[in-house]
Specification:
The strands form 5 sheets. A 4-stranded antiparallel beta sheet has the order 1-5-4-3, covered by helices on one side. The chain has 2 domains: 120 residues, 2-Layer Sandwich (Beta Polymerase, domain 2), CATH 3.30.460; 221 residues, Cytochrome-c3 Hydrogenase, chain B (Orthogonal Bundle). It is globular and about 60 Å long. Helix 5 runs antiparallel to helix 6. It is an alpha+beta fold and 438 residues long. Helices cover 41% and strands 15% of the residues.
Length: 438
């Protein structure tokens, strides 16, 4: 790797002038070489600059807990990274859709959210009236016994709309193509010119199930830009809220997996239990999704001893019920016969695709941002990365259950040993012409 790139830590800021601007060929080489040596593309995005677009790449070294940053300038097109680096696949499709820039040689260049580009220049040569969700050239498998199943965008569950196009032979699914964008609101563009009175609310409502996650990332970025360190007590409350959010989502996902194979007992129980975990978040801040809890500089609401006792009592009882509901999955042969060996993703493919989170860990990718890029309470109270190596539906279910167990332990330990002191600190103004990553 001949080009030296500056390094940055999770939640840290650096002057924009220190981000090296490379020629397109050098930029491609820097990204490709580092990914092939084990780095991971955490982000790849565009910034408008006159008649050009600046492409910014954030490359993570999980072993050293650092990130490298570089940039380049392009106009109408550039040689795609995806043929050499599959991790860039969706990033480059998003750049094409947002800025009308064509990544030449991209193997699957289709829109993601089906909205007009910000520049008015469309990468596919469409007019604004031709841009509609799901109006695309779907991949089709040909064959006498192959059939196509279309599902959505309206679904029976409480999920956001999406259109699923399956290519099947009996119960064997050969291919699935998903189209999103029905609720595209242009939130990223709404952040331009901020932070302002709307910014925190927009961050909290980016996705209905990740209020605390997005609010914490936003607070971390702002604290880096402002040179502010949130108090230890605030970090502890944030971590508890993050783990409650994980508990609600993992429990809901296990119920959804049960529902997908027609096993209604666990599906029904987990629906209720997910609500119980959300209600614990309401104990913290009065809102089941955690809105108005996290702010730059700390948290808006402190935890009293009575709140802690109430939370731990609810946590114990709900976890016992969760264990009983999930045990039904493992103990039912018809469920496990559906889970085992279904939807396998090898570790090699997971690494090439840059999979993270439970999906990556279920394929043996030993990465968890809480332990590999720790911040706040996770620096002093690290959580082990829970992995499985079969990469199938069963593995993705196991990983979620293991993480539920660890999250419950973490919350109990963190609540009992919560640091004393203030829960917020007023941040200074953010530094101009800086980049922060969280």
């Amino acid at each position: 790797m001949t080009t030296t790139l500056p390094q940055i830590h999770n939640g840290q800021a650096m002057p924009w002038k220190n981000v090296p601007e490379l020629a397109v060929a050098e930029f491609r080489s820097a990204v490709i070489e580092r990914v092939h040596k084990g780095r991971r593309i955490s982000s790849l995005f565009g910034i408008p600059d006159g008649d050009q677009t600046i492409l910014v790449a954030v490359l993570t070294n999980d072993q050293q807990a650092t990130m490298s940053v570089c940039r380049t300038r392009v106009r109408d097109s550039y040689p795609a990274l995806t043929p050499e680096v599959p991790q860039a696949h969706w990033f480059e499709r998003e750049i094409a859709e947002q800025w009308g820039i064509v990544p030449q040689g991209h193997p699957w260049l289709k829109p993601i959210r089906f909205h007009p580009s910000y520049t008015g220049r469309d990468a596919w040569g469409r007019s604004r009236t031709q841009i509609e969700p799901c109006v695309t050239d779907y991949f089709r498998v040909e064959g006498q016994e192959v059939h196509e199943v279309a599902v959505g965008p309206v679904h029976a569950g409480i999920i956001e709309p999406g259109h699923f196009r399956f290519q099947c032979n009996g119960e064997n699914v050969f291919h699935l193509e998903i189209e999103l964008g029905y609720q595209h609101r242009g939130v990223e563009r709404a952040f331009v010119g901020g932070p302002n009175a709307r910014t925190a609310h927009l961050m909290e409502t980016l996705a209905g199930d990740t209020t605390i996650g997005h609010a914490t990332a936003y607070a971390s970025v702002m604290e880096g830009l402002c040179g502010t360190t949130a108090p230890a007590r605030a970090h502890s409350i944030r971590a508890i809220a993050l783990e409650l959010e994980r508990l609600a989502n993992h429990t809901g996902d296990l119920g959804a997996l049960a529902n997908d194979v027609g096993f209604l007992p666990t599906a029904s129980y987990c629906g209720r239990l997910r609500g119980d975990y959300l209600n614990m978040t309401a104990v913290l801040c009065g809102n089941r999704f955690g809105r108005n809890l996290v702010r730059p500089g700390g948290v808006r609401i402190d935890m009293t001893p009575q709140m802690i006792d109430d939370l731990l009592d609810r946590l114990r009882r709900t976890f016992d019920d969760t264990r009983s509901a999930v045990d039904l999955l493992w103990e039912t042969p018809s469920v496990m016969s559906r889970f085992d060996g279904t939807g396998c993703v090898s570790r090699q493919d997971a690494v090439r695709l840059g999979l993270v989170g439970p999906a990556g860990r279920a394929s043996g990718v030993n990465l968890d941002v809480r332990s590999d890029l720790p911040w706040g309470s996770y620096q002093s109270h690290p959580l082990p990365s829970m992995t499985w190596n079969t990469g199938d539906v069963a593995a993705r279910a196991y990983v979620r259950w293991f993480e539920i167990e660890k999250s419950v332990e973490f919350i109990a330990d963190e609540a009992r040993a919560m640091p004393a002191g203030p829960s917020e600190e007023e941040p200074a103004g953010p530094a101009g012409e800086h980049l922060a990553v969280a």
